[in-house]
Request: fold
Amino acid sequence: MKLDFSTLSLKDRYKIMSRTVIPRPIAWIVTEGEYLNIAPFSYFIPLSSEPPALLVSIGHKKDGSPKDTLKNIEERKKCTICMVDEAHLKQMHFTSKALQESEAEYFDIPTKRIFEAFPPIVQGAPAAFFCSFLQRVELGGKTVPLVLKVERYYVDDRYVKEDYDIELDLIARVGAKYAKLGESIEPPQIP
Reply:
């Protein structure tokens, strides 16, 4: 399924974002610059459904220079955020290694272009947000939050139920470990 967020209602955008982005999720951010950069981030969260926006916080390299992801987003104004499932856990973890070359090439990670105007997804990613740069937030610290506007969305058809109900089995960051959501629990009835 391919979706244009400008054609969706606020309710549907909210459902997609809230069912795709779980608490402290781990995701690959794919950017294009000098080379194709694929980097994992666990400091990102849905920020708004109107406009549809995500917030990602990006640090700097040990030498104080901007990480490639930050540099590429600010220069190219585009990124693709790929959600990570258990099948991609090993590759995702490896891409946290600081490199001066493409993680896609170094770790042999296949990619696939879904929308021409945006960086590709990691092939087999269950879902991805295609974003444009909206705003940099200056907090005065070592981390730079970026507000990214969701322009397009992709989800593998096998995860889509009726009426944009999306059920993904994603990897999350819990302290220094990774985790999957366990058994789901129905919410109690409100009296």
